[in-house]
Automatic annotation (TrEMBL):
Name of the protein described by the UniProt record: SpoVT-AbrB domain-containing protein
UniProt KW DNA-binding keyword: yes
Keyword DNA-binding belongs to the record: yes
Domain SpoVT-AbrB residue range list: 14-59
Species whose genome carries this gene: Planococcus faecalis
Record keywords, A-Z: DNA-binding
Length: 105
């Protein structure tokens, strides 16, 4: 089964729904459309301060899950900050890159 990742939060409209047999509810179409939810969308159900919270989840292919780890995302953030500050150099030619790797040993 693919890994699931929370989707970004959206501010939206509050609607009233009725709890039915077997704990089922119907999510209003306006909310489904706003969040682009379709049949078989995975939702995380949690309780926060006495409230039921449904969080849409994004499926991530198993071979891409590494990218979404906390460590990798932190490294991406740091790299982007360095790029934004101009603290990086342009791409290296293959020979220069290999020489740089040899210097690090």
């Amino acid at each position: 089964m693919p890994k699931l990742q929370e989707r970004p939060q959206d501010n939206g409209v509050a609607k009233h729904v009725r709890l039915r047999n077997k704990g089922q509810i119907t999510i209003p179409n306006e909310i489904l459309e706003q969040l682009e939810l379709t049949a078989n969308t995975n939702l995380k159900v949690t309780v926060v301060d006495g409230r039921i919270v449904l969080i849409p989840m994004i499926e991530i292919a198993k071979d891409q899950a590494w990218y979404w780890t906390e460590t990798w995302q932190q490294d991406e953030k740091e790299a982007q900050q360095e790029i934004d500050k101009g603290q990086t150099s342009g791409p290296l030619a293959v020979e220069d890159a290999l020489a740089w790797l040899d210097e690090e040993e």
